Amino acid sequence: MIYLDGFEDQRQAELFAHRESSGSFGIEEMADLCIEGLSVCEGHCPSRSLVGQDRCQCVRARFECLEDYQFYENGRKQAVVMIATNALSMFGEDYEDGD
Question: Percent of the chain at pLDDT above 70?
Fold first, then answer.
């Protein structure tokens, strides 16, 4: 990904933070993202260091606005809990069956 200069990155991050969602993500698409999760830059990311992970260039490239990203983050937390609960319940069934 091409890094913008610091001032432009900050300007874009501010616009991203204050932009309103148009609802461009469909519920199925958002659910898939929440279940599968998103990867972010590994290692040093100048944008993430400057404006934070929730407004970095990688996040801005995937989401229309901060509100959509926060919706994803909340959904992702819930999906992780549901996946873990389901996995533990399957483990518990195996344990009770003596497997």
Answer: 87
